[in-house]
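Lecture 7 notes: from sequence to structure.
We start with the chain below.
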Amino acid sequence: MARSFLDLYFERIQYSRSSTANLQTLRDLHLLHLRHIPYENIDVFCHQGVKLDRESLTRKILMRQRGGYCFEQNGLFFMALSELGFKCHPNMARVHRNRPQPGGRTHRVNLVELEGQTWLCDVGFGGSGFRQPLLLQAELEVEQLGEIYRLHESAEHGFYLQWKMGQEWQPLYTFKIEAALPIDMEMANFYTSNSSDHIFRDAILGTRMTPQGRVTLSDHTFKIFDLTQGTLERAVVTDFLDYLDHLHKHLSVELNEAEKALLKLRFAALKSPELGVLGG
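Predicted structure tokens for the same chain:
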């Protein structure tokens, strides 16, 4: 007998609690998704494109134990929430981090309406993402494992998601309350996965949340952050087989033989790591 989508999803994120559509379930699913399904763009880096239909996401992420980037991650999360009975709709955001001005609408998030309140959910932003849903309330500061986030309201851009770095608030992305259509996400996904001027085509980025912090990957560099202890371990990996081991050990990414062959062909295209530099 074929297993249901929710059975596969719950097994993938190791969830065995209530399936009632309430705030605690939403928080649990959001956190476990981030811990067990890694953010990674290896298919885009290998110029394989990204499919967003239900069958493709189920096969890749739930059955083959891969991860994905924002359109895949938040698309899958949307499917699970919708099946559970949550009132959820997709939104498009403009990434602002490391840019002087917000870019195009190339990041997908989900908004969930629950008990008269709206919650921002995002399981696909990578290394600076939040762990649990954020209440859509301007200027409310929320601490999660020592990291502080807030939503700052802007007349021009709607809401800024901001992350506190020291005493300054760093913008991550902006979004307006406007439900995205499937064509909006298809167009943005096509651009981010196929455009030669987008970072995802020439770099490997990865993240997985852990109970103590997170693991990140930027090209050859793996970083393990323990936010409970304030420590950071860093490994620069240039050997291909060692790289595959690190992908599996730290990000839980297991590639099949065909995927390994594709990555090996593109591996030399990764930027050379800075030598002799340790730390964050």
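Points to note: The longest strand covers residues 168-179. Residues 275-280 have pLDDT under 50 and may be disordered.
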